User: Which sequence fits this backbone?
């Protein structure tokens, strides 16, 4: 069994920032990431980010990942393990990892930060298993990481920020977007994003859902219909779209089986998009020495995930005896940044979700 | 309607435009950011204090008409691509409009391209008078188009034939 001081599980924006801030505090940090590259969702985001300067606003997601990695590279007390998945967290504090699908071993850290992010929700409709039906994350990975077009003509289901942004990136890649649907009566994403797709001529159909996909070996058509205020399809409103891709972007849900397995008290909070850990203001869960940050504690934005990461990393390092002199100033700066980000109307639901889990 | 379609109404658009007298004096920004979101790079990008968001980064940005020089730096920094610059000082008949444009192929100076409105509908053919794409714009080129003045409130995008 391997010993470690602070283990950060997941190398997305939250995990990278947790590692940076813990390393700055003097802790020895081990970052474990299941993918080949660090960066989490950021590595496929080719668009400019919102937020303020401190969270790298107006830089592109992929460049933000690079900047965080450069910062992390300055520390000699940080070790990084990629292509390594944490598969278990046990009552005695031991975690088990699988490296490159064949080497399996155990680590005993003094503290952990779980920053495993979120996964995409699915949508049930007839033939939703036909080839050509993708989640938005897969479309982005194909297009922006591997340079492969997912198809020629796409129907996007979901008008949240992700649906809007991925539609925009599809058009940038030379793919036609036939329409963007959303069952809600209003566009969920930022309206500046919606306007920028709309002026490319892409219709956004609110109160609409996909009823059925049609095709023999792959998607050839999508049947969509209007829905009433209870989201029930309205008969007679069906429309057909000739598309070879249906991209599903109906939201994310926190990925935190590890926290449940470890025995952290969890709560279903719709405003945070799923089951999330009960935690204190230091982002420590109900299990001592287990911290969590980022989308795993509630689906939000990279800007908030980064600041949560800094805060959780600082507090986790302090918990194992590495408290920097400026601990109080740093902590209050991070708290202020989070409050600033969340002070507007788009974050009201996030705040009401957080109220339910902070003890 | 805006929340359903993403298309701002005519009143919303004209409400964001500086007066024609100001536009006729020289280039000036039009900041089409209508809703409160946690975002402020327009403010931090401007060296002239041309846009104010203020302490709460969720505030809607406000243009300081007197300070804005129409330099177009904020166009490339706004993640919502919500800002354009209009300039009515070049001629009596025409107006010049600068828009951020992140698609390939980029048009070239002198090209005639299709001018589109906020719904993506064709408005008129327009002439490309400049293409700015310096490194500092970080892959958000700014295209200057020239068109008949009567389309000033309509033009917002272009379509470039491959
Ligand atoms: C299309 C799209 C557009 C977006 N646009 C914006 C935007 O403009 N502005 C903004 O602020 N945010 C944006 N976001 C949101 C942002 O990307 C996420 O909120 C952010 O990435 C969350 O960070 P995270 O570190 O919590 O999770 P992630 O980025 O998801 O990282 C989690 C990491 O953990 C790893 N992991 C998971 N489980 C394990 C395990 N068991 N063992 C080892 N590793 C594991 C994963 O491989 C991943 O690398 C966007 C998201 C998408 C999908
Ligand atoms: S156009 Fe230039 S001067 Fe005007 S607000 Fe934008 S950056 Fe400032
Ligand atoms: S940078 Fe753009 S999207 Fe952000 S607040 Fe300013 S105008 Fe709005």
Assistant:
């Amino acid at each position: 069994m391997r010993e470690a001081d602070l283990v950060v599980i997941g190398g997305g924006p939250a995990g990278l920032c947790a590692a940076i801030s813990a390393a700055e505090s003097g802790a020895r940090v081990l970052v474990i990431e299941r993918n080949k590259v660090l960066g989490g969702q950021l590595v496929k985001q080719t668009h400019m980010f919102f937020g303020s300067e401190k969270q790298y606003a107006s830089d592109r997601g992929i460049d933000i990942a690079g900047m965080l990695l450069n910062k992390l590279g300055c520390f000699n007390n940080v070790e990084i393990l990629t292509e390594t998945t944490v598969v278990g967290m046990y009552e005695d504090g031991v975690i088990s990892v699988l490296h490159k699908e064949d080497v399996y071993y155990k680590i005993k850290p003094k503290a952990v930060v779980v920053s495993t992010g979120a996964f995409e929700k699915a949508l049930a409709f007839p033939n939703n298993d036909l080839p050509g039906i993708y989640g938005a994350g897969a479309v982005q990975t194909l297009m922006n990481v591997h340079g492969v077009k997912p198809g020629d003509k796409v129907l996007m289901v979901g008008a949240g920020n992700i649906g809007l942004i991925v539609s925009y990136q599809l058009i940038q890649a030379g793919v036609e977007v036939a329409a963007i649907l959303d069952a809600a009566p209003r566009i969920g994403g930022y309206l500046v994003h919606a306007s920028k797709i709309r002026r490319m001529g892409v219709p956004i159909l609110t109160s609409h859902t996909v009823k059925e996909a049609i095709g023999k070996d792959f998607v050839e058509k999508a049947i969509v219909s209007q829905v009433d205020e209870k989201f029930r399809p309205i008969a007679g409103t069906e429309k057909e779209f000739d598309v070879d891709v249906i991209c599903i972007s109906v939201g994310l849900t926190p990925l935190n089986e590890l926290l449940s397995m470890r025995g952290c008290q969890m709560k279903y909070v719709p405003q945070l998009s799923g089951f999330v850990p009960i935690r204190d203001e230091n982002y420590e869960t109900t299990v001592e020495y287990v911290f969590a940050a980022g989308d795993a504690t509630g689906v939000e934005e990279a800007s908030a995930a980064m600041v949560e990461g800094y805060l959780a990393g600082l507090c986790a390092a302090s918990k194992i005896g590495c408290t920097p002199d400026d601990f109080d100033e740093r902590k209050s700066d991070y708290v202020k940044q989070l409050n600033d980000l969340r002070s507007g109307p788009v974050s009201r639901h996030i705040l009401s979700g957080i109220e339910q889990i902070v003890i | 309607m805006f929340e359903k379609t993403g298309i701002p109404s005519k009143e919303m658009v004209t409400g964001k435009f500086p007066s024609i007298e100001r536009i006729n004096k020289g280039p000036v920004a039009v900041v089409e950011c209508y809703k409160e979101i946690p975002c402020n790079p327009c403010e931090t990008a401007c060296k002239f204090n041309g846009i104010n968001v203020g302490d709460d980064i969720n505030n809607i940005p406000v243009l300081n008409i007197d300070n804005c020089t129409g330099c177009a730096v904020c166009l490339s920094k706004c993640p919502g691509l919500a800002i354009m610059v209009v300039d009515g000082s070049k001629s009596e008949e025409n107006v010049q409009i600068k828009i951020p444009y992140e698609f390939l192929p980029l048009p070239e100076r002198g090209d005639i391209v299709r001018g589109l409105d906020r719904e993506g509908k064709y408005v008129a053919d327009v002439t490309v008078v400049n293409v700015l794409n310096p490194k500092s714009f970080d892959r958000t080129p700014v295209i200057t188009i020239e068109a008949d003045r009567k389309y000033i409130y309509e033009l917002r995008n272009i379509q470039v034939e491959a």
Remarks:
- The interface with chain B takes residues 47-53, 57-60, 171-172, 174, 185-187, 190-202, 204, 206, 301, 303, 340-347 of chain A (CB under 8 Å).
- The first strand of chain A starts at residue 2 and ends at 9.
- Chain A is about 30% helix and 25% strand.
- The pocket of flavin-adenine dinucleotide (ligand 1) is lined by residues A 9-15, 32-35, 40-42, 45, 49-51, 85-86, 115-118, 137, 140, 161-162, 165-166, 255, 294-296, 300-303, 305 (CB under 6 Å).
